[in-house]
Amino acid sequence: MPTITAFANSPDRGRGQARDMRVRWALEEVGQPYDVRLVSFEAMKQPAHLALHPFGQIPTFEDGDLVLFETGAIVLHIAERHAGLLPTEANARARAIVWMFAALNTVEPPIVDLGMATLLERDESWYEERLPILRDRVGARLDELSDHLRGADWLDGAFSAGDLLMVTVLRRLNASRILVDYPNLASYVVRGEARPAFRRAFDAQLAVFTAGSTS
Fold it and tell me: To which CATH superfamily is domain 3-84+197-206 assigned?
């Protein structure tokens, strides 16, 4: 049974934004049981954890002698070894993997930049001037993604690991309400969140926060 690491005290307060959510969801989709080892912020910077993740982050994935970090790599590993997250037809499979990379390398970076600025730079003198630039960068990517998705349920036919990662990326915009201007993307996220595997992963991550807040 693989083991993943997760925040012992998640800064997202149980909203399913911590990146272990992506790995939990992938494992739930393929029906793979897993263990979770909770890690404190202090422990993340200690040698034992740095041996698993050289950048001192979560999640990590341990399965026997194999240790992985980076959610994209972990989800791809899971998808390649279990049915349900990648198509069997070669070209469709390749396109699903392309969408995995697109979610993490093209769509997520401007969303993270906007989120970090909102959280950490609000008191800086240049914040108000920079904010429209960051919003425009996010908007450009969402315009392009919305045009691609149009009225389809998923990015390329059936649900895949590409959709799993893209939905988790777009969920980072929940607090900003930016997706209100993109009804098809908002509906796309709702479809992802309605999947039973997502609900199981979300509830498992929320339970960690709930237990920590009442202890």
Answer: Glutaredoxin (3.40.30.10)
